[in-house]
Amino acid sequence: MRSRIPTLQIFVTSIFILSILFILSILYGPVYIDPLRILRDILGQNSLTESEEVIIYSRRIPASLGALTSGALLGISGLLYQILLRNPMGDPYILGVASISYTSLIAFAYIAISLGSFFYYMSLVAPIFVLIIALIYTFILSIISMRLSILQLLIVGVSIGFASSGASLILLSRLPPDVAGYLYIALMGSFEPVDLRAAETLLVSLAVVLVASLVLSIKHLDPLILGDDYARSLGVNVNIIRLLISLISGCSAAITVAYVGVIGFIGFASPHIARILTGSGKSIIIAPLTCIIGGSIALLTGLIAKTLLQGAPLTAVTSLFGAPLLIYMVSRMRGEYSW
Amino acid sequence: MASQRILGLGVIAAILISIFSAIYTAMLLNEARENINRINNNINNLSENILRISALASGAISSIETLNSSIRSIERGISSINNTVSSLGELVRASTEPHVSVKYARLFQIAYDGPAKIVRDAEGQKILLIPRTLSAQKDIVSLYTSRYAPDHVIYTPVERVILMSATQVSMILRLEDECRVNIVNTSILGIMWGKQYTWYVPKISDMLDKGVLRDYGPADNPNVEMIIASKPDLVVIYTYAGSPVFRTLKGSGLPVVVDNEYLENSLLGRFEWIKFLAVFFNLDGCAESLFARVESTIDGLRQLISNRAPVESLRPVVAWFSVFGGRIYASSPASYVVDAITMAGGRYAFIDIPYGSVSQELVVSRSQYIDVLIYSTSKEYGPKSIEELAKALSFVKDIKAVREGRVYVFAPTYWQLGTAYPEDIIRDLAKIFYPDIQNLAGWVLRFFEKLS
Questions:
Q1: Chain B residues whose beta carbon lies within 8 Å of the beta carbon of residue A55
Q2: What's the CATH code of the domain at A264?
């Protein structure tokens, strides 16, 4: 399968769309502010009121950056998991990062209650706690991945996911109903909590992940898809590469869960959209394009969620709007889709 | 020769003595035989007499049984007359007892038909309430059941009640106080608690600790077998979308009724559910007079506030929300919260936002107009100070209320007692909105706490 559109054109168009969506995400939100005044203020003309400045610079720009970076991180995480597991159904949460994060959030709620300062700890400390637990889990899983076959790794990860989901339900059942209700939807994905500091963290993470992925994709990722033996025959240290892929993809997923919650579909769909557009399976092309597409989907669904469907969980919006898009793209393909 | 003579005389004497003895013995035997015959005859006579007496006794017993049966019939007749008198008494009482009228609540109805009450609960169930004194009157009971085809028939006053929520408990406690009756100790078996929250009502907390009130498990997953084993004559629950508890309890044949006062969108509508509970205890009149008094108190407070702030522009703008995971949980314009704010002389900051879908941007855009912020949790799960609030939620720090220190949270008793004391909620809010209002100068906030 090969696309008739040149790869460079696809990249340029994608970056253009990403930029437009980023700008739209700043110009439009739950509160209407004249877009021209926003643009003039960004360009230095001081045309916004004080509260409008707070909205644009303290809320919309960080949230838009958060959407862009977390969408890109989810995309790259999904791509790497699909390569690691040689499974086109791979997504950032397939090995249990989301479940572990959720369980750790609920467990932290108990700690916060026992410390007598639920509000303070849940507001300020919980995201850091969730991130640390998710990173520890990712690290352990990555070490294990060196010793297990792909199928074994998949079974272990999925089973841990089920177990932690069960633990979450038990822990939730012992909490007061209103607290349990809040926790139930706390991780359902939102870009609103992303402030400047969180946006910076996500941006730095994306830069590190993207560079690492590009380095790996030069000669290590593509052979891995064709099998361990083939990769070894080309001089790839399969165990080390698996460890690195596991770490990068797991950390990407963990960081996004900690800061924006669980947002489904982006990690699964972005690599496939990139492959369908380019007709290529080469990681060096797919990886950066996946980031751009992931960021675009996140910005678009974030814009829809905050303007048209206020209050809806983001993961619901991405799935509802993204799935038809992917189905349409797959159905329009000629020939067999080989990822 | 002499000795032989003597021997001979002796033999003759012995023979004569023997003959006389035999004759005498025969005479004695004969006499004895005659005596025995006489005794036998007497015994026979006695047996006959005994038989006669037995027959007479049987007859007497039969007569006594007949007499007892008659007495029982008479007793039944008297009982029936008593029941009829009670029924008449009940009818007289029913015709003179004040009836409950439902003015504000939308989710339940009460109708009266002689001594019976027909209640429609929040799930649309039709419940027939019949006075316990009429429960033996099968004809009366079947008359009403055939007329109304109810989902449940419950005899009042109920005596074995299981409750689900703390608000239902608080309503019962208020009825106890108002009507000077003992309900919790005598008629409440227990609560579906499951230790999911702390009780701030010492009486209930104490009774639960001592096991006087049983804990039937958490409200979202109660111990159904324990409930069935307790044989309640009334189980009061609340329901929400997707809750299986109602189906489970009703399917188990339990007399379950649904009290969803939390879904009412007016403050008095929520409180009016006290009448719903009262009718099961035959406290209709008491509940009606209590409600009328509370309504009158609130009307008085509204008049006071209206005098203090006659035009809308003088009324403070009030924001009422909490935040979790970056998501704002604000009250919908059609909620009891907005009703309470309005009655207490405030203006809700997000009255134009449907379903309470308030974003952080919206809060920021209206920051300078918000005079009072009520953060809708208690300190247990909410901020303990304004500094903590502003640090955790950066978007609130520019709210005028935060800058001026007019931020309040719920007191721990808000959720458990607030519904049963709406007039105190209005007093609290009026005091918060108008600290200088003279008639409330001595009023200490009951359901809210100011953040320092």
A1: 361, 364-365
A2: 1.10.3470.10
